[in-house]
Amino acid sequence: MKKIKSKRIIKLKDKPKRFINHASVVKSLGADGIDVSIEKCSIMKSVPLSVLQKLTRKRLLIKEAESVFKTVFRAKTWLNTNNPYLKNKKPILCTNSQKDFDKVLSMLSSIKLGFPG
Predict the structure, then answer these.
(1) Cys staple from 69: which of 24, 36, 73, 74, with CB 3.0 to 4.6 Å?
(2) What pTM value is reported for the model?
C-alpha cells in the first residue's frame, strides 16, 4: 500500500503568508483572524518563533491603525499604501523587524496627534 503525501504539509522554510493560508485565516483586515492563526500556530510545535512574532506585530499594527483611523477602510488604505517615510514601503510590510515596526507605530501615534504621516 502506497503512502500518499499530503500537499498541505507546511515546511519550516515557508513564508508566513503561505502559512497563514494553510492555517485557515480569514482573508480580511481584521486582527481577529490573526488572533486565530496565532492560537493555531502555538498548538503546532513546528512553527518557528519568528513567524509568531511577525503575526503578533501585524495584529498589533492592524488594531492600532483601526483605532487611529476609526474605520477599517481608512486603516486598510493607509496600511496598503506606499509611504515615503518608510522608504516607499507599505506599512503593513514593515513588521519583519522590531525597528521598522516601532517606526510605523510612532507614525501612527503622530497621526493620532494631528501630524501628517
Answers:
(1) 74
(2) 0.63
